[in-house]
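Why show two proteins at once? Because comparison is the fastest way to build intuition. When a single record is shown, students tend to memorize it. When two are placed side by side, the eye starts asking what differs. So, the first record is below.
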Amino acid sequence: MPFPEQWAKNAIEAAGSCQAWPLIATESAALPYVVYGRTSTDRGTNMAGVPVVFNPSAQFQIEIYAATYYAAKTLADQVRQGLHNFTGTAYGVTIRSSLLIDERDGDPVFFDGQDKPTYSVEQTYQIRWEE
């Protein structure tokens, strides 16, 4: 069965020209890169507890990492352009809607051996798709 993570990974990589990793990047991941994951899913039920047939909706957390603050902001904008307001069928899944609902600066991260921070931007998307 197709799922929205297939579309999200490919859409992020195409928009940002960088690697996208589910949940956590490898230690050897080169900057810039993106980490994505589903944080909640709503499939809905009716009042009698019987599942309703409709398109599920989920929230996704996208974390964008880059060597400079402005590189992180630029990559975040590219990812937004690739994911926000998308509808259609791609990579085997039909996306009914994809909306950016929150965006904020992430905390700077000092990876092992670094004397300067890696910067991040965090985005939250609400994505509805067909199962």
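Second record. Ask yourself what differs from the first in the token line.
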Amino acid sequence: MSAKHQRVILIDYGDGTTEYRITNGSKELKELTDKLKGDPSVEYYEVVKATTKELWVNPNCSPED
């Protein structure tokens, strides 16, 4: 599948860890987001296109003092 159909899911867990997952196609994207919605350890996730460069910051986090 071409890169224009790839999506990256940026995931922030409640324990402070983060990860990203690359998906190919809408079926795989839907399966993963449904799984994340039901996961109590996931604090926040965001889906972005793989062809863009973005800085990702969890809007629920504040800078550490």
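One difference worth noting in the second protein: The chain has one domain: 3-49.
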